Amino acid sequence: MKKNITCMLAALAMGQVTAQAQEIKIKDKIVEKADTSLVIGMTMDFSEIEVPSNLSIVCTPVIVRDDSIRPLTPVIISGRNRHILYERTGRNFTENQEYELRRKNGEAQTFDYQVRTPFAKWMEKSEVALVTDLCGCGWEALQNDRSPLFPINLAQPIVLKPLLTYQTPNVETVKARAKAGSAFLDFPVNKITIYPDYRNNPQELKAICETVESVRDDKYATITEVYIKGYASPEGGYQNNAYLAENRAKALRDYVKGLYHFDQAAFTVDFEPEDWAGLEKRLEAMNLSDKDELLAIIRADEPSDLDKKEWKLKTLNGGASYKILLRDVYPALRHSDYAVKYTIRNFTVEEAKELLYSDPKQLSLNEMFQVAQTYEPGSRQFGEVFEIAVRMYPDDPVSNLNAANTAIQNGQLAQAKRYLAKAGTSAEKQLAEAAVAMLEGNLDRAEQLLIPLKDNAEVAEAVNNNLEQIRLKRAE
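^ thats the sequence. predicted structure below, dont judge the formating
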């Protein structure tokens, strides 16, 4: 980039003073800070300057900011006779700290200027100017007759690094867990006895056993309850369906109880005579011409007698849609939901550290958090803990907040926003949202989010730090 300046040069010839505007052009500028020094470099082009034979022009670059000024090595441009006189005096750069050169008027002429000067803090944001002295004014010229050349900006740019606050998950005194499923066992009409080899029963019973055994074989788990709830479809009379739902559930309980013997586990049975909620849910997903009418019957408070309600479904519009429900939906409403409930023992931090990568499902959020505290905040291992935690607990507000904080620190703002959408409501979440706004350059939005948190003891330190970063960024 070229920077043109205009110097007013006076030519004194044969006793008469004349003045003309001419240009010294500056290009290829360099500004570097080297240890405790500042290096200034530039190419000065004197091609348009004419200097009378017996005249010298002193051009002094200066660094200036407000009332602070630092003169640099001057360049003396001499006419022919003046140059000869200068050489006869024996002056040189080493002793006199000045450059001197003869101007050959009418010819292209450049000079590669470079100087090193002690660095001062005020120079970080300053400018280089040029003082041209024709009259020997010296310091007065340095103070008043300056032409700007180019700015200096060595101040390090403010890199926003918003502080965040992680939430500590609650301690689980008892780590209660459950594995659940639904079994669609086939029974002969109106029968309540389980036939293990009947129709699809081998596959359904195998799935139940695999669930039980996955918990039984877990060395850290203790089974506390096997829970079974039976359902029947609305087809047929309500009283008979209640009998079937209850006793088929009891039959499944007895079947499982006969296979496994758990000293402290309860075997609990519940039942729902007719699964109207399941019918409504499945009907909502279907494309039937009279779906709205069917749903209206299901949702209506009247008739309260479920047998009459089922009859209305059966006879609506000649029963065409009911036949589809009977074929495609009702079999799925005859099911037994089951859950194997168990507890997992608590772990020391060292045990949790090993399990985090080998079997993280055993750990509570708090145990994972304690592992994170053993690593340097911001480190790879620190972040990995919270990423694993949110995979194990994808819907937990605390796991999502902490994972969002890690994503923010890694610059993954889109991912952080997805986590924050599931992070509930808290001061820590608002702080994280402000951090995202800061890093996206929306400082006004960040400030709006931060100011209401200034008096919140949980996040006040981070809030004040982030507000100060915003102030410094704006002042750049």
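The first strand starts at residue 3 and ends at 13.
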